[in-house]
Amino acid sequence: MGTSVSRLQRKPSSLLPVQEKECDIDRSTLTTSSQHSDPPTSLENSNYWLPKTYEEQDRLMGQHFAIKELFGGNVLQNAARVLPLDEGVMVLDEMATDYPNCEVYGIDIYPTYPQTIRPPNSVFMLADAIDGLPFADNSFDLVQVRLMVAAFKVEDWPRVIADCVRILKPGGVLQMIEPDYRDSGGGACQLLVRTLIQVCEQRGQNPRIGSCLETLMRRAGLLILDRMARELDHAHGGKLVAEWTYDWRSIAATSRPLFEQTIGLSGDKYTAFLKDIEPSMKQYHFKSFGYAVTGRKPMVL
Ligand SMILES: C[S@@+](CC[C@H](N)C(=O)[O-])C[C@H]1O[C@@H](n2cnc3c(N)ncnc32)[C@H](O)[C@@H]1O
């Protein structure tokens, strides 16, 4: 990890996983007062609410590199140790360039992946993970599920994880990386994270899913290899903080139509809110939280 990662502060007390019951299908822990009981969705039959614009694709690309830096690579350390990634294994993810000897599959409900210019060792398939992964049992050495907080409902997570375990070979690894959206800071940055929490909860999603990953993976029978909890204080300087501050501001910009409606701010007021995000993060010591966990499928389940 680079020097900027050392700015991350490990504070075990605030990074302890949430109470186990918060990871269950207990809607009472998720329901908050909401201004809009019938929120719009971005795709018919899909719960996914982040936009599919070029700006959002750019944000996700930047976020990909910020995640890599935050967790020290594309595959967490202990998982990389048990998988012969350089020799080539079967991967369900988007790591084709990092591991040219691997056969890499990726799925999405949108046809976002380029059909012509793409690494030759990658295959993209249109599929909805909630309907069941379109792969045979015991197919993959590594499966990654990442940044699906805005896609899966609380009750989808155990089903999707069980399906990942099904398609993993015995001894294969599931890697999961998700944020933990928690109330933090003050002013514009606090309004932003509260809006994200509200939008997730309105859709039956768990904004704190990052802190539930380990519990859910253990319950699915996986043997935990890596667990990394990261807390980033946006009042600190450095490249990593700058990347994540940019990501927060970008999500507010790319999700503007939905957030304007949720917050009840529009036009110049929303533009002023966007401008205030970065200074308020510094002023109020806004904190971002993220979790990365890997778990191995036992040789005999
Ligand atoms: C925030 S992006 C993360 C993309 C990628 N996993 C990453 O880590 O960069 C979430 C992606 O999941 C896709 N998605 C949403 N719901 C899905 C579902 N039910 N099954 C498969 N993909 C889904 C979205 O279209 C979007 O491209």
Automatic annotation (TrEMBL):
SUPFAM superfamilies to which the protein is assigned, alphabetical: S-adenosyl-L-methionine-dependent methyltransferases
Any one GO molecular function term: S-adenosylmethionine-dependent methyltransferase activity
Comp. bias intervals (Polar residues): 28-47
Disordered: region residues: 1-47
Keywords: Methyltransferase, Transferase
One of the GO BP terms on file: methylation
Coiled coil (residue ranges): none
Pfam families: Methyltransf_11
Residue span(s) of domain Methyltransferase type: 95-174
InterPro entries from the UniProt entry: Methyltransf_11, SAM-dependent_MTases_sf
Gene3D superfamilies xrefs: Vaccinia Virus protein VP39 (3.40.50.150)
PANTHER family listed in its UniProt record: METHYLTRANSFERASE (PTHR43591), METHYLTRANSFERASE DOMAIN-CONTAINING PROTEIN-RELATED (PTHR43591:SF105)
Protein name as it appears in the record: S-adenosyl-L-methionine-dependent methyltransferase
Organism: Hesseltinella vesiculosa
